[in-house]
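Researcher: Good morning. I'm working through a list of sequences from a screen, and I'd like to move beyond sequence-only analysis. For each chain I'm collecting a predicted structure so we can compare shapes side by side. This is the next one on the list. No need for commentary yet; just the structure.
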Amino acid sequence: MPTRTIEKIELPVVSPGTHRELKAIRYGTSGNRPKAYLQTALHADEIPGMLVMHHLDRLLRKADETGNVCGEIVLVPAANPIGLGQYIHGHMSGRFDLNSGVNFNRDYSDVTDAVAKRIQNELSDDTAQNVASIRKAIVAVVDELPTPDEASFVRKTLLGLAGDADICLDLHCDGEAVLHIYLGTPLWPEATDLSAQLGSKATLLADVSGGNPFDEAVGGVWWALQERFPGSPIPPACLSATVELRGGRDISHGQAAKDADNLFKFLVRRDLISGDAGLLPDLLAPATPLEGVDPVKAPSAGVVVYLKKPGDTIEAGEAVAEIIDPVSDSIDNSAVVLRSRVSGILYAHRLDRFTRPGQTLCRIAGAKALPDRMSGNLLSD
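Model: Good morning. Structure tokens for this chain:
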């Protein structure tokens, strides 16, 4: 018997005559294990994931109709109704909350302290019991979070849907990029199957990347508790990751269907769906520390000319871009050459081709931490 249901969660009314809601698509039976949670468009103007989710829902519906959904699967195909409604002069502005100026993928609640208080007298030598206790505590703590405004209500709701999941995938995209993944360091190498199945060209690891984005708010509590209670077995029981689906303009039915198929096969491998996922593809690139990324920044304003494209292998010292000052008095000396400090994969470009000083133009995944890259401050808005 098919299990697919749709839940519509009303957001608080913030202006007379307006109404917004979050839609959650559910498969399987609530409480079944494992549980997978997938969402997209948390940055509302990042569109590729919406089409991927459309194709994934079709695949899951077929699996559900044949009784092949084994665990619990929750899809949120548009995680940010607030950002979807933010238009300025005809252009969507879905990355930052226009009311507060805060990035929609920052400032999620860190529930570690509250969860620790609830479970400190319940921990034992039984790993499974500890995991169950922690999941129960996470759900209870999130349920008590305050929601003084619409954005905090959305944050709480998303955390509530994902907090007790075994797998949590937050689908995003970059400006111009190859597919890449952000993961908590404790999840590697067990998460190799995710990077390999999706064809990730760069997998970037950090314990704390900064700003408490959604994936770390969901998954990071596990290794934070592990550090706090070293005498009790607490595994990183939620594979929580941010998946960057290439660039914002990389949208087609063919590509989205392929990505959806890879996500579906990953869920098969993780026992959410019965079936044969086939041979696991080769891992395209080893995981590297987020502290090893060189965010090549513009020292001056001007027109950006990229000399390398996403996916290229770069050597340290190699020129990756130029900035041309269009009003320079010297034609011959108007170009500023930008060079990589690391050897690795150039995985993302900024979409805009005009820059101001201090803007990050491209990112290159190096294998070793850079001295100026500090844990806890690795992500920019």
